[in-house]
Amino acid sequence: MKSTVGILIITLLSMSIERSAAQNLVANGTFDANINGWDNPFITSEWVASEGGPISGSGAMRISTSNNNNGLFGMNSDPISVVAGNWYYTAAWFMTPAISVSERGLYFIDWYDSDEVQLLRDAVSSEYGVVDDVWLPLEGDFRAPENASFMIIRLRLQSGIPGQIEEAFGFWDDAFVLVDSIFFSSFD
């Protein structure tokens, strides 16, 4: 029994080490010095040095909107090349300040073929009404659809109740996409 528990612990540790040593496929997902590689012409965004998630902690992307209609707002990554059928581990951290009317964080993974036709949308979402002023993680494992050649990550916050005049804003940091080699074993 002790040897089985020991083997299980070693296996789990090796999987976490493997993920932490993997290369992040997101260009500038840690926002250490700027927000290059992220775009949305309809959203106000800026790099802030005074905030940072628990992994990199060296800056964050601040996004905001004045359109408080209970809608989603956020930024889009540059396209990220993928291999159809491979599994990808995705993660990002967000924070909604107490003085903001943002109510939750979520992100979409939009998968595209080589002709830039959207094949599928996957999503990871927090609960509505998250704890303010705390960095919160979101993560998920997704398999690239057949014929997929790239993905785009869409980091989003949701604004509060329609008609509020306060600014809806929040922060994102430590966005990751890793090839998830855990699923490439003979168990798959």
Concise structural overview:
The chain is built from one helix and eleven strands, in the order H-E-E-E-E-E-E-E-E-E-E-E. The protein has 188 residues and is mainly β. The protein has a single domain (24-184), classed as Galactose-binding domain-like (Jelly Rolls), CATH 2.60.120.
Structure description:
Mean pLDDT is 85; it is low at 4-20. Strand 7 and strand 8 form a beta hairpin. The chain contains one helix and eleven strands, in the order H-E-E-E-E-E-E-E-E-E-E-E. It has one domain: Galactose-binding domain-like (Jelly Rolls, Sandwich). Strands 1, 4, 5, 7, 8 and 10 form a six-stranded antiparallel beta sheet that branches. The chain has a five-stranded antiparallel beta sheet with strand order 2-3-11-6-9, with no helix packed on it. With 188 residues, the protein is mainly β.
CATH domain topology: Jelly Rolls
Largest sheet: 6 strands, antiparallel
Q: How are helices and strands ordered from N to C?
A: HEEEEEEEEEEE
Task: Provide mean pLDDT, rounded.
Answer: 85
In the CATH scheme, the class would be Mainly Beta
Low-confidence stretches: 4-20
Measured between the Cα atoms of the first and last residue, the distance is: 26 Å
**Multimerization state:** single chain
What's the architecture, going by CATH? Sandwich
Mind telling me the C-alpha Rg? 18 Å
Tally of distinct domains = 1
